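INFO  loader      accepted 1 record
INFO  loader      residues=502
INFO  predictor   begin
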Amino acid sequence: MNEAGRKEVAAAAAAIIYANEGGYSSVNANDNGAVSVGKVQWHGNRALSLLKEIAQKMGKPAAENILGAALCNEILTAASWQTRTVSAAEKAKLSRLLDTQQGRAAQDAQAEADILAYVSHGVKLGIEDRQSLVYYADLENQGGAGASKRVGEAAAQKAGGPARVTLSAIHAAALADRVMGKYENRRTLVYKKAAALFWGSPGAGNQNGGKKTMTENELRRKVVQTAQQYAGSKEADGSHRRIIDGYNAHKPLARGYAVKYTDAWCATFVSFVAIQCGITDIMPTECGCGAMIDLYKARGRWQENDAHRPSPGDVIMYDWQDSGVGDNTGYPDHVGIVVDVTGDTIKVIEGNISDSVGYRNIKVNGKNIRGYCLPDYASKASSAPQTPQKPQTPQKPAAAAGEQTYTVKRGDTLSGIASKYGTTYQKLASYNGIANPNMISVGQIIRIPGSGTRTYTVKAGDSLWAIAAAQLGDGARYNEIKTLNGLTSNTIHPGQTLKLPA
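INFO  predictor   done
INFO  writer      dumping C-alpha cells
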C-alpha cells in the first residue's frame, strides 16, 4: 500500500480511535497502574514524553504557571512515568496543560504520527484489507504493538496468510486473544464501525472484493443509524468533542480549517457521519452550511424546492429568516440529516441543536426549510433493487418456523416487536446487529429468528465469532450462540456440541 493509501486508512482509524478515547484535556489518573492523557490516551512513559514536549514548547515559566514548580520540574526531568499515577489536584493541572494551544497542537501532531505508524505496522505484517488495517490500528492504540502483532499473526494463520485477512478474521482473533478478548464491547464496536468504512472500494475485504453489496435503502439506513449513535452528545459534558476530533482527523480539511470546540458544529456533525460511513465521495465534508451547499450544487445534487419530499439520509438545510412563502434564497443557518418522513412530518437529527445532538420535527414545505443536499446513494448501491416489504401482521411463529421479517412502523419499539413474536429484545438486537435497542427506524426490516435449532460440533481453532460467521452468515451473531447455549464466556473447546439457530 502506498503512502496515500496508508494516510487514508490512518484518517479513518483516527476517527474511530478519537471516539473511543478522550478529548484533548482528558486525564485518567490511574489507568492500569499509570496515568493516561489526551485525545488518544497516551499511557505511562508515552504520556510523560508528550507532557514534556508541551512544557518545552510552552516554556518553563508558562508551564510552571499551570503546573506549579514541583510538577513542572518532574515532567521536565523524570526518566520514567511507567508506574506514575496522579492525584486529583495533579490531574486538574495536567488537564489544563493539555488543553492549551501548544497542548492541542502537540497532540494533533503526535496522534497523526502514531496512528499512521500503527497502520504501517499492519501493512508491514502483510495485511492488505483496509478495514482490517483500521481495526489493527485501534488494537495497537489500545493494547500496544505486542498485542496488535499477536492478534494480526493469529488472524493470518487462520486465514491462510496475511494478505487474506479480513475484518471478520482479525476481529475473531482479537476476541480469542488472552488479553484483547477481555475488551469484547470495544472490539465489537470497532468492528461495526470499521465495517462501514471504504464502502465499495478496493481493499474492503468484507465488501466482496470492492463490489457493491448494499442496496440504496440499506446505505441510507446505515447513515441514519450512524448519526443516531451520537444522539445526546453535548457541549456541556464535552462529549461533542469526539465529533469535532473525528472531523478534524479526516484529511484534507475543508478549506484547511480545523474546527474548534467552541465553533458552531452542525455541518461538522453531518460531515463526521459521512466520514464514519466512508461515503465522503457522495457526502462531501464541510464545516460551513453555505460551503456545503456549493459542494452539492457543483455535483448537481442541490434541491431548492421547499416542497420536496426527502428520503432518510438526505441533508436538510434551514434558514431562520425564511418567510415561509415559496422557495427561500437566503443564507443557510443550520443543517441536519433526515431520519424519517411520515405523512407530511420530517424527522431530523442535528448537531448543535441546543448545543447537543438531538432531533427536530418539521413539516414538508414548512417555514425555515432552505433546501436539500441529496447525496447520490444510488451510485454507491447495488444494482439489484430492494424488494419492498409489506408490514406484516405478526403471528407467534410455530416451534420450528424459519426466519421471518417485520417492517418497523411508527410507534414500534424493539421490545414490543419481540413480545409479539415470543422472544426478547436482546435476542432481536443481537440477531439484527442493532447496537442500540432504543434506536430503530420506520421502514427498517427486523429479522425474526426461527425457534428451531440445529447442532454444531466445535473443531480445533474455532471461536464463537468464526462459527457465527460461517454457520449463521454474520460473526456479530455470536451472542445468540452464547445465549442459546447458556455460555457465560467466549471459551469453547474442540468436541463441544453447540446448539445453533435453525
